[in-house]
Prior knowledge:
Layout: H1 17-34, E1 39-44, E2 49-54, H2 61-76, H3 83-88, E3 107-112, E4 115-123, H4 127-140, H5 146-151
Antiparallel strand pairs: 1-2, 1-4, 3-4
Amino acid sequence: MNATPDAHVVTSRSISQEAAVALVEAAIAASAAEGIAMAVAVTDSGGHLKAFASMDGTPFLATDVAVDKAWTATSFGVPTHTWTEIVAQPASAQLAHRPRLVAVGGGFPIVADGAVVGGLGLSGGSAEQDARAAVVALEALGFTTEDEKESR
């Protein structure tokens, strides 16, 4: 076999450190505007933590939940609120027992040119508050949310 090493390699795209930090900052601003202390996490395309911040007064459990929301959104490229419906199906119900899977709103894939480049997860408010702040942050940086695509 005369294949070159490059023939066996797949290149993937991931969110930059600069964009990850900017998303965290935008999400903190959106959370503060709602008067809610939140934890904010951004993962890269492999689900690894890229940027994180926790506002003063954020419940400590929100830290892990935010990271796991970002991880969940990255894993299949769908917002975390859609997992409620997915795990309700008998064929996929077992997924609800995965330790890091979060089926609560507030996590969104970060998509650039059709590729999942990371995930954004917020926790500290209600699922709706977390999701609203996440959407504001994503839109501030020019990312499209799955909900926007569905409404077109």
